[in-house]
Amino acid sequence: MIKTERLQIVPLEDKYLEDVFQLWGNFGVIKYTYNKLLSSREDCQIRLNDLLSRYKDNLGANKFIILLNNKMIGIIGFPVIDNDDFKCGLFYQIKEEYWGKGYAFEAAQGVLNYIFEKHSNAYVIADAVVLNVASIKILNKLGFKQIFIEENGFKNNGMEIDLVHFEIDRRQTITVS
Q1: For the whole model, what pTM was predicted?
Q2: CA dihedral 137, 128, 114, 87 (to 10 degrees)
Q3: Which residues form the signal peptide (predicted)?
Q4: What domain count does the chain have?
Q5: Mean pLDDT by 10-residue block, N- to C-terminus, for the chain (177 residues)?
Q6: Of 149, 150, 51, 120, whose CA–CA distance to 91 is shortest?
Q7: Which of 132, 129, 125, 131 is nearest to 147 (CA)?
């Protein structure tokens, strides 16, 4: 478990199916992700099973549930791209009713600290569509550096939008505020 000031970040498990379904069944939450909007718990179970089957790397769990007062408010993860050099991605999704309260930043900061404690050579990438101003602000505040913008790099949910690519490594400072 990863603990922050207000949050507990625990490994993803089947028991969170209903909460995950509410998250991934909300177009506002997933519209700038590569996930398709879910319309059934069965589809959610299939996607959850897929995530759980690709669950572990040499750190153990890499996909987590974000809890606030023991209530699921989101999901966060760092899918591993290269175990040898420890390169991973970072993603997070927060239920709409918890937007704008700093929870995504706090959870991401906790996960980044966890990654960097375990891997001194860690290199983390993240992407955000240009329209997702909140996510771009979070990544900048965390100390991510923009490396390039890919024109029409995001193609999903009937949209083609420019995609901003970010990176951070252990040598960069993670903002604490």
Answers
A1: 0.89
A2: -140
A3: none
A4: 1
A5: 95 91 91 86 88 61 90 92 83 96 97 89 92 95 95 85 90 49
A6: 51
A7: 125
What is the CATH number for 61? 3.40.630.30
Position 119 scores a pLDDT of 84
d(CA 176, CA 26): 31
64 close to 9: Cβ distance less than 8 angstroms: yes
Residue 75 bridge partners (DSSP): 65, 93
Angstrom distance (rounded) from CA 95 to CA 65: 12
Residue 163 belongs to a domain: no
CB distance 66 to 16 below 8 Å:
no
Contact (Cβ atoms closer than 8 angstroms) between residue 164 and residue 136: yes
The end-to-end CA distance of the chain, in Å, is 22
